[in-house]
DNA sequence: AGGTACTCCTGAAGGC
DNA sequence: TGCCTTCAGGAGTACC
């Protein structure tokens, strides 16, 4: 599942290939993925537009266009974005196809079709509530230890689902949430309010570290994720707990446990991560 | 308001 | 082998 490191890897792959390119044609093979505006308007506005910049906010990719428009893409579970040169066959699951002036294409592929695309003026991005209410990003000046600890202190619920709450900190999904808790040595079901100052500090550092490691490795290809060139990431080789059910903990050798927390598969070491 | 449950979706995997 | 059920999970929504 694409989380911040995967989306950032895709952004870096695609940036040089798509900036300054003009979209000549838009094929909507599955129009219902377009959430705003209508599919017809989406197609009409995009056609002939030049891409000026490729940005990212949390797990959203932002294609800035001329005339102050922005094409927003959220990959959700199985979305993929590929740049494919003219003449090369497209992905079996391509749902939206953007063709550039020399027939090169940008393809939005998605097996489970849960992804979402939007097109609007930059001044109207507030319409996307996920963007509007998004919390600070790891590895930025806005994401401070004081902010993080303050927010955690006020919450009674389990820490794991809080790490998935994009209004608290943006970009973490199930993989990096489990990895952050493992690195910090915190049980996923521990109440956030009961974390000690030392634990808050360790978790803050861990969130930044696992996100930085994920980006450095070009993302985690656990199942569906591929980068903008269709390549797998490397970070699945360095995971501490995610997807390692029954395999030995890399610190103490205890078999990794898998439980369900707030409806999400959750991996942790029962010896290193105490409640 | 914070917390929980349900919904969307389809291929892979597991049970019998 | 084949049919059926379950699972994967981001995020919007409904509801208490």
TrEMBL record:
Biological process, per Gene Ontology: base-excision repair
Record-annotated active site: 2 (schiff-base intermediate with dna), 3 (proton donor), 59 (proton donor), 264 (proton donor)
Cofactor: Zn(2+)
Domain FPG-type: 240-274
EC numbers: 3.2.2.23, 4.2.99.18
Pfam families, per the entry: Fapy_DNA_glyco, H2TH, zf-FPG_IleRS
Reaction catalysed by this enzyme: Hydrolysis of DNA containing ring-opened 7-methylguanine residues, releasing 2,6-diamino-4-hydroxy-5-(N-methyl)formamidopyrimidine; 2'-deoxyribonucleotide-(2'-deoxyribose 5'-phosphate)-2'-deoxyribonucleotide-DNA = a 3'-end 2'-deoxyribonucleotide-(2,3-dehydro-2,3-deoxyribose 5'-phosphate)-DNA + a 5'-end 5'-phospho-2'-deoxyribonucleoside-DNA + H(+)
Cofactor binding remark: Binds 1 zinc ion per subunit.
Residues covered by the Formamidopyrimidine-DNA glycosylase catalytic domain: 2-115
Molecular function GO labels: 8-oxo-7,8-dihydroguanine DNA N-glycosylase activity; class I DNA-(apurinic or apyrimidinic site) endonuclease activity; damaged DNA binding; double-stranded DNA binding; zinc ion binding
Residues binding DNA, per UniProt: 112, 155
UniProt xrefs under InterPro entries: DNA_glyclase_Znf_dom_DNA_BS, FPG_cat, FPG_Glyclase, FPG_N, H2TH_FPG, Ribosomal_uS13-like_H2TH, Znf_DNA_glyclase/AP_lyase, Znf_FPG/IleRS
Alphabetically ordered keywords of this record: DNA damage, DNA repair, DNA-binding, Glycosidase, Hydrolase, Lyase, Metal-binding, Multifunctional enzyme, Zinc, Zinc-finger
UniProt xrefs under PANTHER family: FORMAMIDOPYRIMIDINE-DNA GLYCOSYLASE
Quaternary assembly: Monomer.
Family indicated by similarity: Belongs to the FPG family.
Described purpose of this protein according to its UniProt entry: Involved in base excision repair of DNA damaged by oxidation or by mutagenic agents. Acts as DNA glycosylase that recognizes and removes damaged bases. Has a preference for oxidized purines, such as 7,8-dihydro-8-oxoguanine (8-oxoG). Has AP (apurinic/apyrimidinic) lyase activity and introduces nicks in the DNA strand. Cleaves the DNA backbone by beta-delta elimination to generate a single-strand break at the site of the removed base with both 3'- and 5'-phosphates.
Entry-linked HAMAP family: Fapy_DNA_glycosyl
Protein name: Formamidopyrimidine-DNA glycosylase
Organism: Propionispora hippei DSM 15287
């Amino acid at each position: 599942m694409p989380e911040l490191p995967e989306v950032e890897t895709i952004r870096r792959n695609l940036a040089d290939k798509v900036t300054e390119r003009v979209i000549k044609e838009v094929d909507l093979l599955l129009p219902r993925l377009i959430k705003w505006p209508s599919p017809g308007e989406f197609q009409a506005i995009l056609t002939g537009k030049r891409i000026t910049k490729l940005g990212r906010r949390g797990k959203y990719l932002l294609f800035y266009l001329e005339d102050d428009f922005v094409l927003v893409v959220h990959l959700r579970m199985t979305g993929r974005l590929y740049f494919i040169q003219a003449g090369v066959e497209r992905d079996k699951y391509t749902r939206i196809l953007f063709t550039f002036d020399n027939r090169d294409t940008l393809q939005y592929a998605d097996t489970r079709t849960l992804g979402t695309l939007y097109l609007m003026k930059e001044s109207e991005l507030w319409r996307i509530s996920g963007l509007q209410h998004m919390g600070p990003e790891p590895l930025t000046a806005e994401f401070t230890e004081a902010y993080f600890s303050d927010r955690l202190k006020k919450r009674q619920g389990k820490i794991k689902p809080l790490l998935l709450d994009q209004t608290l900190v943006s970009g973490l999904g199930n993989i990096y949430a489990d990895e952050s808790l493992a690195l910090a040595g915190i049980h996923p079901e521990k109440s956030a309010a009961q974390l000690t100052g030392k634990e808050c500090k360790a978790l803050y550092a861990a969130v930044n570290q696992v996100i930085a490691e994920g980006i450095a490795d070009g993302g985690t290809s656990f199942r569906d994720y591929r980068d903008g060139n269709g390549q797998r990431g490397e970070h699945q080789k360095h995971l501490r707990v995610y997807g390692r059910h029954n395999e030995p903990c890399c610190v103490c050798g205890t078999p990794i446990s898998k439980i369900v927390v707030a409806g999400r598969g959750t991996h942790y070491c029962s010896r290193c991560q105490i409640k």
